[in-house]
Write a structure and sequence with these properties.
Elements lengths: L2 E6 L1 H19 L5 E6 L2 H17 L5 E4 L10 H4 L6 E3 L11 E9 L3 H13 L4 E9 L11 E5 L7 E5 L8 E6 L3
Parallel strand pairs: 2-3, 2-5, 5-6, 6-7
Antiparallel strand pairs: 1-9, 3-4, 8-9
Helix pairs in contact: 1-2
Length: 184
Amino acid sequence: MAEQHVIMDEIAIRRALTRIAHEILERNKGIEDCMLVGIRRRGVFLAKRLAQRIEEIENASIPVGELDVTAYRDDLEESILKDESPPASGADGAYPPTRGKRIILIDDVLYTGRTIRAGMDALMDMGRPQSIQLAVLVDRGHRELPIRPDYVGKNVPTSKLEQIEVTLTEIDTKDQVVIFQGRG
């Protein structure tokens, strides 16, 4: 059985998201022309939490979209990709326009970078954003592509035998980040 350690609890996750919200506001000098886009599944809930914190801080709302990158993954067989639904949707089913927007792409764990590359490809197919920034809750290293996050909740250098698991109350039993030793 793999040994596990909780490296972020509910409070640590909340603090990390609050810090990232402030960093997004500072870097973009507010939220004008900004949009949060969460990668399904947990990235969507992190994006919604960030939007809530930004609204609490700025007293203004920021659009949130969600992105399914399955059709853009380079590690799935083509037969799986043919029946995929559109990659993106908004809260009302219509996706907010991305052209000219500063997109902040959000995911739970950054590992090889292939999921983020797929997300950027999907966003570019939807329109030409002004820029794409990346926010992740955990950066565990081991990049296979030259991708670097702009906002990081926690850097967790790992071995390839370790795994990181993020659980969020919206779809799991609780908020936490766990590292599993020797589960590769």
